[in-house]
Design brief:
mainly alpha
Length: 237
């Protein structure tokens, strides 16, 4: 008999990975992965913790009775398809995205952050962003806005989708068979969330430390001009 698994709700019940899987099953996982991968309103959905829990529950035989290879294949396809839609959305909407007003489900700062991430890492950002919450949702959209070469995007999208979709799920599957992990699943999930947001925290701390070092008025003005020029560039295209 499968060992019961109790996860700690890291937010509202409807964002708890086990609740989502127990309620919507594999189809629910695929829908969430698809939405979080490229639909701008999906940035708040659980990603890493959901995939880890999916792998864990596949190993446990609870809620998910499909073989691991099929679960990984479908999740990877959903992740790749989500990024493809995000890219095409960015190509279609283009600069209008940078003029979109803030709302409950949309913040300009998320787009700017994804744009900076894309500018810093180039094509590699499509793979790296998979492992950074929020950024992973907006990066394919920004790639579309920036008119990244489509063939290059597809190649990096497939690589990222496999590494993230299959990698995190398989990790959950094998770690889920270890008694210590099963006994401490709440802390494991919290650890996954903490690790996944570390890149964002690091960037915030780096920016704050730079400010404490005494940025001159000229440097502040130059930074503000750079932001304005970036926004004007997309508005003018």
């Amino acid at each position: 008999m499968p060992t019961p698994i109790t996860t700690l709700a890291l937010g509202p019940e409807w964002l708890d990975p086990e609740w989502l899987i127990s309620t919507f099953g594999l189809l629910g996982i695929l829908a969430i992965v698809f939405a979080e991968s490229g639909l701008f309103f999906g940035f708040f959905l659980p990603g890493d913790s959901l995939l880890f829990t999916a792998g864990l529950l596949t190993a446990d035989g609870k809620y998910i009775t499909h073989p691991l290879w099929l679960v990984c294949l479908l999740i990877t396809i959903a992740a790749i398809a989500g990024d493809q839609v995000g890219y095409l959305f960015g190509r279609k909407v283009g600069p209008a995205l940078f003029r979109r007003p803030n709302s409950r489900f949309f913040k300009q700062e998320h787009v700017i952050k994804a744009h900076d991430f894309f500018e810093k890492y180039g094509a590699r950002s499509i793979v790296l962003a998979r492992f950074v919450p929020i950024v992973r949702t907006f990066t394919p959209i920004v790639a579309g806005v920036s008119k990244m070469n489509y063939r290059t995007f597809v190649i990096y999208n497939v690589i990222g989708g496999i590494l993230w979709g299959t990698g995190v799920t398989v990790l959950g599957y094998f770690l889920g068979q270890i008694p210590f992990v099963k006994a401490n699943i709440e802390m494991i999930l919290i650890g996954i969330v903490v690790v996944s947001v570390l890149p964002i925290v690091f960037e915030l701390l780096r920016a704050r430390m730079a400010a404490k070092r005494g940025t001159t008025l000229a440097e502040k003005a130059a930074a503000e001009r750079a932001i304005q020029e970036t926004q004007q560039h997309y508005r003018g295209n």
